[in-house]
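Researcher: Next sequence.
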Amino acid sequence: MTPPRLIVVMQPTADDALRAEVLPPDALPLRLPETTYLTFLLHYPDYDGDTQLWVGDESWPLEPLAPGWWVARDQLTDESIRVRFNDVESGLQLTLRPSFRNRFGQCVLRLTSPDEETIPLGTLLFTNTKASEAQLGRMLVYLWERQTGWFDGPSRVGVDHLLPPDSVFGTLARLRADLLFLHRQQPLFRLLPQTRLLPVRQRLANPTPDQLTEAALAFVLENPYCLEPVEAIDSTTLIWQQTPYRLRETETDLLHENTDTPENRLLHGYLTDVAQYLATLPETLAANSYAEAPVWQREAMTRRIRAEAGRLLQLITDWQAFAQVYLPVRYPEFVLPNALTGFDHSDHYRHTGRLIRTWFSTGRAVGLGAEPSLSGIRSVDTLYELVCLFRWLDAWQQQGYVWQSFEPAPKAMPSPHERRPEQGFYYLNHPNGSRVLIAYECLPSHYQITVPYRKSMPLRPDFVVEWTTAEGHSHYLVADAKFRPALPVREHELPGLVMKYGHGISPDRSRRPAPTNRGLLLLHPTVPPNVASGREGFWFWQFPRFDPFGDQPAPLQIGQVAVSVDNSDDYLGRLVNRLLS
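Model: Next structure:
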C-alpha cells in the first residue's frame, strides 16, 4: 500500500503557482480554478472514497483531481481565513491562524475517512521566536515551491520546549531542564532542607533531672538495675522509699530534626522513577517500533537517545548521592498525595513540587511521536539555511552554469542525528569549462579543518563555495547563514566564526593546488540602512581598503551579504557576477 504524500502550495493563481515540476509528468495536466488558494495536493493512489483533510482543528473536503490525486482548497474569500494572509496579491505572506497551533506551535495534518479512520500525514512544527509570521510564511512558501520536502523525516530542533509532548525527545528535553534546575538548587536543599521533629529513642548515661521524662522514669521502674545507692545527696539524687539513689542510665524519646518527610520521600521517588525510565528507554523504544522511518534515521535516533539518556542518568546519580547525604529518608514514595502543602515550605521546594507533580501526572513518552515518519521539525535557522542554499544555486545558474549532480554528505559528516536530505555536495559546470562546487553543511575531502569539536563532531560552516576557472585557478569562500540581528552577530559571534571558518579551514595541499580563500561571508536577511555599499547588497569590513575581487594576495576578507527570505532581491547573483568578472 502506497503511503499518502502531501504537497502544500500557496497558490495566487492556478497558472502561476502550480507548475509542472510540482507533480509527476504522468499526472499532468492538472488545472485549478484561477483564484487565490492555499492548496493541499494529496497523492494517495490506494484510496478512493470520501475523505476530509484536517489541519489543526479545521477540515476541508478532498475532491478528486486526477487518478491518484486529491485536492483541498482553502479559499481566501472568507473573512476568518483572510486574517491568515497579509498580502493576497503576491501570495507571499502566509501566517497560520492561532487555531492551527497548539501551545507547542504544531500544525497537525491528518486525513479522516467516513469510517472515522485517521491517517496521519505529518506535523509541521516551527517557532517564530526569531522571525515574524510574514518572514516565516515567505520561507515556507519558497521552500514549498522548491520541493525541498523539508517536513519529511525527524530531525533536530533548536528550541527544545517546542518539541511535541508525545515524542521521547520532548520528554528528554523536559527532564534535562528539570534536572539542571535541581542541580542549581542543591545549596538551598543543603542549607534549608524540609525537616520535622520526630521522637528518637536514646540511651542516656548519668542523665540530669531535666532529662527525666515520663518515658525515662518508666524505664527506671522496669529496670531497677539502673539505680545505684549513694550516701551524699545532691541535685542529681533520686529518693525512692527513703533511700537516695544515683541514676546510672536510662532510655527516653528525644525530639530531633529529621529529613524523613513526605516531600523528601517524593523527591527520592521521583529520582528513582526517572532513573528507571531512562535505564529502560532503549528497550522500550525497541518495543514501540517506528518502522516507517528509514533505517539510518532509526539508528541515528537510537544513538542520540542512548547518549542523552546516559547524560541524564549521570545527573540523577549525582543527585541521588547528594540526597543520601543531606536528605536521607527511610524509603522513597511514588504516589502523589491529594495535597502537597509541605512543598510550600520554601521556593525551591515549591518549584520542585511542580516538576514532581508534572512527572507523575502526565506520564512518559515511549515513542518518537504520533507521526514518526513525517514529523518534520525545523528551526527557523534551518529554514533560512535552506533558503540560502537554493539562492546560491539560482545565483550560479543565472551566470550560465548548468546543474550536473548532487552527492549526499558522507555518513560521518555531519553528525548522524543532524543529517538532512539536502546536506551534501552540489556540482555545476559552465560550457566554457569552469565549474562550481557548493558544499552544504559538509566539507570537501580536499580541505582540512582544525576547529573545536561539538558532541565529538568538528564544527563545519553552512556553505563552502569553490569555483574553478577554465584555466584551472581555484577560489573558494566560506559562508554562514545567521537569521539573527546583524549587529550582535558582528560584535559577539564574528571573532569565533573567523577562527573556526576563516582560519580553521584550509586546503589540503598534498592533494591538489591550494585554492585562494576569498573570505568569510555572513548571510543575513536585511541590509542595514547605514551601510554605504548596501545598495549592492554586499559589503566588506576588512581594513585597510583593498579590492576584494582582485587577483592580488590579501588578508582574509570578512563581509556580509543580504539574502532575503523571498525573491525581492538578487544580491547573491550580483556577488557571483562580481566574483566571475
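Model: Residues 93 and 134 are 5 Å apart (CA to CA). Residues 295-326 form the longest helix (32 residues).
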